[in-house]
Amino acid sequence: SFFLASAAPGGTRVGFIGAGVMGQSMCSHLIKAGYSMTVYSRTPSKCAALVEKGAVLADSPRKVAESSDVVFTIVGFPEDVQQVIAGTDGVLAGLKPEGIVVDMTTSKPSLAQELAEKAARQ
Fold first, then answer.
1. Sorting pLDDT into bands at 50, 70 and 90, what band is 2?
2. Dist CA 118 CA 122 (whole Å)
3. What pairs with residue 111 in β-bridges?
4. Which residues contact 9 (CB under 8 A, 6 or more apart)?
5. Could you tell me the pTM of the whole model?
6. What are the chain's domains?
7. Distance of alpha carbon 21 from alpha carbon 70, whole angstroms
8. Under 8 Å between Cβ of 10 and 30
9. Angle ∠(76,91,69) on CA atoms, nearest 5
10. 3, 38, 40, 78: which has the fewest Cβ within 10 Å?
11. Range list of H helices, 12-53
C-alpha cells in the first residue's frame, strides 16, 4: 500500500530532530494534528515547549529513530545532517527497515544520495 495513505495521527509515530524556529513550528503542527512525537535537539532546552505540548524528549537521534516510523530532520548544516543521520548514535543506527527519513535541511543533493546509499547497505 502507498505509505501516505496510512500515515494518520494515532497510527504513525513521528520523530523530529532539530528544534530551531522552523523545526519548532512544524513539530508543533504535527503534535496539534494528533501525531505521537519524539523529539531531539543538541540543546535539549529548545525542546521544552514541544514536551509541554506532549512530545517525548529523546537523548539521541538513534533513540528518536527507534521510537518512530517517520523521522524528520531540520538541522543547521550538511555536516550536521551527516552526524545526525549517519553518526555513531545517529538515525540509521536505530531506524527500522521500513522506516522513513525526511531531511529538510538546506543541503546538497549529493549528500542525500550518499546517505540513501548508507541506509540501503544497513
1. very low
2. 7
3. none
4. 33, 34, 35
5. 0.91
6. 12-121 (3.40.50.720)
7. 20
8. no
9. 110
10. 3
11. 21-32, 48-52
